[in-house]
Amino acid sequence: MKEEDVITLIKDMAPSFSKGVKLSIGDDGSVVEIKKGMELVTVLDSMTLGTHYLPQTTSDSIGHKIFAVNLSDMAAMGAKPKWAHLSLSLPNADHSWIEKFVKGASAIASKHDLVIIGGDTIQGPEMISLSIQGLVKEGKYITRTNAKIGDLVYVTGHLGSAGFGLHLLKLGKNEPSEFIQAFDYPEPRVDEGIFLSNYASSMIDVSDGFHTDLSKLTKASNVGFNVSIDQLPIRKEIFDHFNTDDAISMTLSGGDDYELCFTIPEKMKDGFEQKWNEKFNTRLSHIGIITESSSGYKYNGNDYMIENKNFEHF
Question: For the CA atoms of 58, 64, 70, 75, what is the dihedral angle to 10 degrees?
Answer without folding.
Answer: -140
